[in-house]
Specification:
The complex is a heterodimer. Chain A is 32% helix and 21% strand. Chain A is α/β, with parallel strands linked by helices. Chain A has a five-stranded parallel beta sheet, with no helix packed on it. A five-stranded parallel beta sheet of chain A has the order 9-16-10-11-12. A five-stranded antiparallel beta sheet of chain A has the order 22-23-26-25-24. Chain A is elongated and about 115 Å long. Chain A starts with a strand and ends with a helix. In chain A, 46% of the residues are buried. By secondary structure, chain B is mainly β. Chain B has one domain: Rieske [2Fe-2S] iron-sulphur domain (Rieske Iron-sulfur Protein, 3-layer Sandwich), CATH 2.102.10. Chain B is built from one helix and eleven strands; from the N terminus they run βββββββββββα. The longest helix of chain B is centred in the last third of the chain and has 5 residues. The chains are: A alpha/beta, B mainly beta. At the A-B interface, helix 19, strand 40 and helix 28 of A face strand 1, strand 2, strand 5, strand 10 and helix 1 of B. Strand 40 of chain A pairs parallel with strand 2 of chain B, so a sheet runs across the interface. Bound molecules: siroheme, flavin-adenine dinucleotide (FAD), iron/sulfur cluster and FE2/S2 (inorganic) cluster. FE2/S2 (inorganic) cluster binds next to loops of chain B.
Chain lengths: 810, 111
C-alpha cells in the first residue's frame, strides 16, 4: 500500500510539490486553513485592483485534486503535530502520516501598536483580506497602508485604482529599501506621488486610533492620518508555530537541510515557512526550486537545494522596476551608475571581481534579463566594463548626453533668477535668431546681472541650436557631478527638487550617494531653498555640525555657549565654571569672538554638559556651524566716553534675530560704538560702526587667511533699519552664494553693486529677502543643544554601540 | 576559528553612518553604508588618528573628519590624498543583527 503523505498548507509551494509527485506514489491528504484550494497568491494584487477575478487565479481546482486522488481538507487548519504517534490533529480528529510536509507559508506581521486588532485593520495575505479591502474600497474613503515594501505598494496602487484616497506610511528613509537604493526609491516615490498617492517616509506608527473600528493612524511625531481602512503591510512572519510546538528546530523559519528535511524524522518543510542556510525566502522562484528538491527527496532520490539569486519586480502597471542580487555582504565591490534624468531612468550595477553581483534598475527594465543572466552566470565582464551599463543594444562611445538636464527643464523653469527669465523665453529668443550668449543677454536679460546662470544659458543655446561644440560645462563641484554650484542651486529651484536623492537623480549624479564634498553642499542648498519642507540629513553634515560641537585633534570636542554680544553674567560664568569642573574640561579659553570655549569634552558627555548649560540659560554658540557665529561688540555709549550709540545693545539684538541660521559658510559680525572701532567691525562679514548721524553698515570683510576691509553697504538712521539690512544681506548670501564661499568671496563674484541694488536700493527686493529670512528662521532660530540634550530625544549615537573591553579581557 | 558575537541591531546605526565599539584593542568603528552593508575598521585614521566613525560615509568609503583622507571601508586602504592602511575586522549582518568576529579582535597582532 502507498505510504501516507500528509501536507499542511495548500499554498504555492505545496501546490508545486503536488504537481511534481506522480499520482499514486503516495496516499496524500492535504490540509488547508483557507476554505479553498490552491491559487496563485501573487495575483491577489490584480484581483484587489479589480483587474482580475478570483476564478482566474485558481491554479488547482477540485477536479484536479480528484484526478490526482488527493484527499482535501480545506478550511480545516492543523492544530498540532503528534510526532510520537505520527499523526496530525485538527478540530475533526487525528490523521496519521508516514511522511509529513509542513508548507504553512507566512502570516502578515501586525506591528505591535495599540489598536492593531481593531476592525478595519487588515493584512494582505489571502483572499479573505482582499475581499475585506474590496468591500472597504466600494464604500470609498481613505486608506492608510503601513509599509512601503513590495506588498504595501501593490496594495496602495490597487486601492488607489479602486478609488480610495491612499497614504503609504513607511518606516525607512526610502521605499522598498531592501530591494532599492535611495535613488531608485526616490523615483518610485515620485511615481506614486504623481498618481496622487501620498507617501510618508521615516514614519513611525505609534497607534491606530478608533472606538469601534480603525479611524486614524497616529505617528510618533504627532501626525495623524484619518483612515477608513488600515492595511498592515509591514512585513511577514514565517508560520512556524506547529513546528515549534512539536519541538522541531526553528530559527527564523523551520530549519531544513539541503534535501528539505527538518530536524525531525520523516518531517519536511518548504516554502516561506522554511529556512535554508540561514535564509528565509519571500518570493516564489526559490520556493518552486524547493518543491522540486523535496519531490525527489520524497521519492528517495538524491537532491540538494541550491540557494538561487532572486530578483524582484513590482506588479504595478506603469512602474518599471527591477532589483536582483545581494547587496548585503562582501568586499572589493565597485558600482557603475547610469542616470538619464530626462527619461527618469536609473541603473546601478554592483561589480565584484569583474562580475555583476547586484542590479537595480528603474524606469526602463527591458535589459534586466540581459544583466540578470550575467549576474547568474558569473560572466567576467572586464572586457565590456566601460559600456556594460548601457545594456546590450549599446554601440559607440560611452558618453551620456551632457545636455540632458537642461533639455529636461520645463518651459516655465526659471533660468535667470535676477531678471526672472524662464527657459521658454530664452529658447524663443534663440529660435528667433539670438545665436550667442551676448544676443540672448540683450534680448531677454538672462545672465546679464550676477551672471551665475551663464553656464545654463550656454547649454540651452547648445541644446536649442544643436551645435556640436557645446561650451564645456563649468567644472562640477566634485567628481560625482558635472554641475557647478550655481547650476545646482538653480535646478533645485526650477525643478522643485526636495531631497538629496531627487537632486542626484534629476541632475545625473555619477555616483549612487555622492561624497563628502557634494553631500554637505546639497544638504545646505535644500534646507535653504525649502526651509519648511526639507528634512535635514544628519549623515550629510560634516562632523562638527552633526555633533553640534567642534572636533579636536584628539577626537574630543569643544563647547562654546553663546554670549549675546559678548555680554555675560556672574551666574552664567558660575554655570560655565561648574560645567568645566564637573566634566573635567582640561582647557578653558577666551576666544577671539568674545566668549568662552570649553575644550576637551568627551563625546558621550556632550548632551549632559549642554543640559547643564541650558539650565543656566546658555544656548549653543554655533562655533561649529556654517552659520552665524558671533556678533562682537564694544561697550558703547552705555559706558564709553566716546560712544555715540548703544553698540552692545544693537549687537545683542542682531545676534538674537540672526542666530541659528545656516549659511554657505560661517558668518561673523561686529558693532562698534564709534569710529575707533574697538569691536573690529570693519574686517567682519558684516560690520556696523556707530556715528553721530547713524549707523554705517559695511560688508564683505575678512581677517582670516585673507585680510580685507569691509565695503560700505549703506548708512541708516535706526537700529531697525540695520537689522533689516542685515537680514536682507544674509538672506541674499544664503540664497545665492556657492557653498563654502565666505561673504567676501561671494561679493567678489557677484559684485557689490548687484548686492546694493537688491539689499538697499530696491525696497521690494529687500522686503522680500527679509520675509524669506523670517520664514527660514521660524524653523532654525532654535537651540539645537536643548533639543538634543532632552533625555528622551538624545540620539543613541552619542555613546558607544557596545563595550567589549570588560568581556573580552577575561 | 571565527566566533561571532552579537553587537547590536542594524537599525542602531543610521544608514551612511557609524557607531563605535570599545574593545581591548581600542575603538572599532562599525559603518553602515547606504545599501545596508556593514564594515568594521579601527577607529583611527593613519594620518593623525582622526576618528573615522565621525566621517562622511559615501559609497563604500569614509572621509576622515579631520583632514579629509578617504579610506576604503572594504580594504582599509587609504585612497588619497596620503597613504596607509587601517585595520579591518570581520563583521556581518544576520537577521538584522550585527555580528562581529571576536576571534579577530583578540588576536594579539590585531592592534
Ligand atoms: C576658538 C577660536 C580661537 C580662539 O580660541 O580664540 C577659533 C578656533 C578655530 N577656528 Fe577660527 N577661531 C576663532 C576666531 C577666529 C577669528 C577671529 C574672530 O572671529 O574675530 C578669525 C578671523 C576672522 C574671520 O573669520 O575672518 C578666525 C579665522 C578662522 C579661519 C579662516 C577663515 C577664512 O575665511 O579665512 C578658519 C578656517 C575656516 O573656517 O575654514 C578658522 C577655523 C577655526 C577652527 C574651527 C578650526 C577647525 O576647523 O577646527 C578652530 C576651532 C577650534 C575649536 O574647536 O573651537 N578660523 N577664527 C575662535 C572662536 C571664535 C568664537 O568665539 O566663535
Ligand atoms: C499580495 C501578494 C503578492 C505577491 N507577489 C509576489 C510576486 O510578485 N512575486 C513573488 O515571487 N512572490 C510574490 N508573493 C509572495 C508569494 O505569494 C509567496 O512567496 C508564496 O505564496 C509562498 O508560498 P507558500 O506555499 O510558502 O505559502 P502560502 O502560499 O502562503 O501558502 C501557505 C498556506 O498554508 C496555510 N496554512 C497556514 N497554517 C496552516 C495550518 N496550521 N494548517 C493548515 N494550513 C495552514 C495558509 O492558510 C496558506 O494557505 C506575493 C504575496 C502576496 C500576498
Ligand atoms: S589659528 Fe589655526 S590653530 Fe589657531 S585656532 Fe585658528 S585654526 Fe586652529
Ligand atoms: S587624521 Fe584623518 S585625515 Fe588627518
Amino acid at each position: 500500500m502507498a505510504k501516507k503523505l500528509v501536507v499542511i498548507g495548500a499554498g504555492m509551494a505545496s501546490g508545486r510539490l503536488l504537481e511534481e509527485l506522480e499520482p499514486g506514489r503516495f496516499d496524500i491528504t492535504l490540509f488547508g486553513a483557507e476554505p479553498r484550494g490552491n491559487y496563485n497568491r501573487i495575483l491577489l494584487t490584480p484581483v484587489l485592483a479589480g483587474e482580475r477575478e478570483f476564478e482566474e487565479i485558481v491554479t488547482h481546482d477540485d477536479a484536479w485534486y480528484r484526478r490526482r486522488g488527493i484527499a482535501t481538507r480545506f478550511g480545516e487548519p492543523v492544530l498540532r503535530i503528534d510526532r510520537r504517534q505520527k499523526r496530525v490533529i485538527t478540530a475533526r480528529g487525528a490523521t496519521p502520516y508516514d511522511k509529513l510536509v509542513i508548507a504553512t507559508g507566512s502570516a502578515s506581521f501586525f506591528i505591535p501598536v495599540q489598536g492593531n486588532d481593531l476592525p478595519g485593520v487588515v493584512g494582505f495575505r489571502d483572499l479573505d483580506d482582499v475581499e475585506q479591502m474590496r468591500a472597504a474600497a466600494r464604500a470609498g474613503g481613505r486608506a492608510v497602508v503601513i509599509g512601503g515594501g513590495l506588498l504595501g505598494l501593490e496594495a496602495a496602487a490597487a486601492l488607489h485604482r479602486q478609488g480610495m484616497e491612499v497614504t503609504v506610511l513607511h518606516l525607512m528613509e526610502h521605499l522598498m529599501e531592501r530591494q532599492l537604493d535611495p535613488a531608485a526609491g526616490y523615483l518610485l516615490q515620485k511615481e506614486f506621488e504623481g498618481r496622487g498617492i501620498r507617501v510618508v517616509c521615516k514614519a513611525h506608527t505609534t497607534a491606530i486610533l478608533g472606538k469601534e473600528r480603525a479611524e486614524a493612524v497616529l505617528l510618533e511625531d504627532g501626525a495623524l492620518f484619518p483612515a477608513d481602512l488600515v492595511v498592515m503591510a509591514a512585513g511577514i512572519r514565517p508560520e512556524t508555530r506547529l513546528a515549534t510546538e512539536a519541538g522541531i528546530r526553528v530559527e527564523r523559519g523551520i530549519w531544513v537541510d539541503d534535501a528539505m528535511r527538518t530536524s525531525a524524522e520523516d518531517i519536511h518543510a518548504l516554502g516561506e515557512c522554511a529556512e535554508h542556510a540561514g535564509v528565509v525566502y519571500g518570493l516564489v522562484a526559490p520556493l518552486f526550486d524547493m518543491a522540486e528538491v523535496l519531490a525527489k527527496t520524497l521519492r528517495g532520490e538524491e537532491a540538494a537545494f541550491v540557494p538561487p539569486v532572486v530578483s524582484t519586480r513590482l506588479k504595478v502597471s506603469g512602474v518599471d522596476l527591477f532589483s536582483a542580487g545581494d547587496f548585503s555582504e562582501g568586499a572589493g565591490r565597485e558600482e557603475i551608475v547610469f542616470r538619464d534624468p530626462a527619461r527618469g531612468i536609473y541603473r546601478r550595477l554592483v561589480v565584484e571581481d569583474a562580475r555583476i553581483s547586484g542590479i537595480v534598475m528603474y524606469g526602463e527594465t527591458a535589459d534586466s534579463g540581459w544583466f540578470f543572466d550575467k549576474l547568474k552566470s558569473g560572466e567576467d565582464i572586464s572586457a565590456i566594463r566601460e559600456r556594460l551599463i548601457f545594456g546590450p543594444a549599446f554601440q559607440g562611445s560611452g558618453e551620456t548626453d551632457p545636455l540632458a538636464s537642461v533639455r529636461a527643464l520645463s518651459a516655465e523653469a526659471e533660468i535667470c533668477g535676477c531678471n526672472g527669465v524662464c527657459k521658454g523665453e530664452i529658447v524663443e529668443a534663440i529660435r528667433a535668431g539670438a545665436g550667442d550668449l551676448a544676443a540672448v543677454r540683450e534680448r531677454t536679460g538672462a545672465s546679464a546681472s550676477c551672471g551665475s546662470c551663464t553656464g545654463l544659458v550656454e547649454r540651452l543655446l547648445a541644446a536649442t541650436l544643436g551645435t556640436e561644440a557645446a561650451p564645456p560645462a563649468p567644472a562640477g563641484i566634485c567628481p560625482c557631478t558635472d554641475h557647478g554650484h550655481q547650476d545646482i542651486r538653480r535646478l533645485i529651484r526650477a525643478r522643485a527638487l526636495k531631497s538629496i536623492p531627487a537632486v542626484m537623480q534629476e541632475m545625473g549624479w555619477k555616483t549612487s550617494c555622492g561624497c563628502h564634498i557634494c553631500r554637505p553642499a546639497l544638504n545646505y542648498y535644500l534646507l535653504c531653498e525649502w526651509p519648511l519642507e526639507y528634512a535635514d540629513d544628519a549623515q550629510s553634515r560634516l562632523v562638527n555640525e552633526r555633533n553640534h560641537a567642534n572636533i579636536q585633534k584628539d577626537g574630543t570636542y569643544s563647547v562654546v555657549p553663546r554670549m549675546w554680544g559678548g555680554i555675560t553674567t556672574p551666574a552664567e560664568l558660575r554655570a560655565i565654571a561648574d560645567a568645566a569642573e564637573k566634566y573635567d574640561v582640561p582647557t578653558v579659553h577666551i576666544t577671539g569672538g568674545q566668549r568662552i570655549d570649553l575644550l576637551g569634552v568627551k563625546k558621550e558627555d556632550l548632551p549632559a554638559i549642554w543640559a547643564d548649560l541650558n539650565a543656566a540659560g546658555l544656548v549653543s554658540g554655533h562655533a561649529y556651524a556654517k552659520g552665524l557665529r558671533t556678533v562682537k561688540t564694544c561697550v558703547g555709549s552705555e559706558h564709553c566716553r566716546f560712544g555715540t550709540r548703544d553698540s552692545t545693545g544693537l549687537g545683542i539684538r542682531l545676534e538674537k534675530v540672526l542666530w541659528g541660521s545656516w549659511t554657505p559658510h560661517k558668518v561673523k559680525m561686529a558693532v562698534s560704538g564709534c569710529p575707533r572701532n574697538c569691536a573690529e567691525a570693519t574686517c567682519k562679514d558684516l560690520g556696523v560702526v556707530c556715528v553721530e548721524s547713524g549707523y554705517q553698515v559695511s560688508v564683505a570683510g575678512a581677517a582670516g587667511m585673507e585680510v580685507k576691509q569691509t565695503e560700505p553697504l549703506a548708512t541708516v538712521e535706526t537700529e531697525e533699519e540695520v537689522i533689516e539690512l542685515a537680514c536682507a544681506f544674509l538672506q541674499l548670501y544664503r540664497e545665492s552664494a556657492d557653498y563654502l564661499d565666505r561673504p567676501y568671496k561671494w561679493v567678489a563674484k557677484v559684485g557689490m553693486d548687484w548686492v546694493i541694488e537688491r539689499v538697499v536700493t530696491d525696497r521690494e527686493s529687500r522686503a522680500a529677502l527679509v520675509r524669506r529670512f523670517e520664514i527660514s528662521q521660524s524653523v532654525h532660530r532654535r537651540d539645537p543643544w536643548a533639543e538634543l540634550a532632552r533625555p528622551e530625544s538624545r540620539p543613541r549615537s552619542w555613546s558607544p554601540l557596545a563595550d567589549l573591553t570588560t568581556e573580552a579581557a577575561e | 576559528m571565527s566566533s561571532w558575537i552579537d553587537i547590536a541591531a542594524l537599525e542602531d546605526i543610521p544608514p551612511r553612518g557609524a557607531r563605535v565599539i570599545r574593545t581591548p584593542q581600542g575603538c572599532v568603528a562599525v559603518f553602515r553604508t547606504g545599501d545596508d552593508r556593514v564594515f568594521a575598521l579601527e577607529d583611527r585614521c593613519p594620518h593623525r588618528n582622526g576618528p573615522l566613525s565621525e566621517g562622511i560615509v559615501h559609497g563604500t568609503s569614509v572621509t576622515c573628519p579631520l583632514h579629509n583622507w578617504v579610506i576604503s571601508l572594504e580594504t582599509g586602504q587609504v585612497g588619497g590624498p596620503g597613504e596607509g592602511t587601517v585595520e579591518t575586522y570581520g563583521i556581518r549582518v544576520e537577521n538584522g543583527r550585527i555580528l562581529l568576529d571576536e576571534a579577530r579582535l583578540r588576536r594579539p597582532d590585531a592592534a
